[in-house]
Amino acid sequence: MKYKGSCHCGAVQFEIEAPETLECQDCNCSICSKSGYLHLIIPQSKFNLIQGENSLTTYTFDTGQAKHKFCKICGIKSFYIPRSNPDGYDVNIHCLEPKPKELIIEEFDGKNWELHAHKLAHLSKENKG
Question: What global pTM score does this model have?
């Protein structure tokens, strides 16, 4: 199904293709826990930025591999390119409309990222087998 997503002010808008029932990750790392981000990692082909490229700014830290994209106007991070899945997008479930029919939330130990990142690699693949 198609979901629309946006930042708070609407300057950044995108759409994704994903199932009605979404499996997502709740990460306990410093940036995710402080921002309340709920992760849905998808292949690049399932993401389409509709508007707002010029309204985005990028934040990186530590290794600089993850590209955290924030709206310059309202400050919301509605999606980013994750270090674990540089071939995909990580979308914040809280920024999607309509709300998913069902949400399956898995805990992810991002505080110990190096030990657990391999568990996410399959999520950005076209055939998530």
Answer: 0.90
Report the alpha-carbon distance of residue 51 to residue 99 in Å, rounded: 21
**β-bridge partners, 59:** 68
Q: What is the distance between the alpha carbons of residues 100 and 84, in angstroms, rounded to a whole number?
A: 24
Q: Which CATH number fits domain 2-124: 2.170.150.70, 2.40.280.10, 3.40.50.300, 1.20.1250.20?
A: 2.170.150.70
**Would you list the DSSP string of 63-87?**
TS-SEEEEETTT----EEE-SS-TT
108's tokens: 């992810």
pLDDT tens for the chain, 129 residues long, are 999 999 999 999 999 999 999 999 999 988 889 999 999 999 999 999 999 999 999 999 888 888 999 999 999 999 999 989 999 999 999 999 999 999 999 999 999 988 998 999 999 998 654
Q: d(Cα 79, Cα 124) in Å, to the nearest integer? A: 14
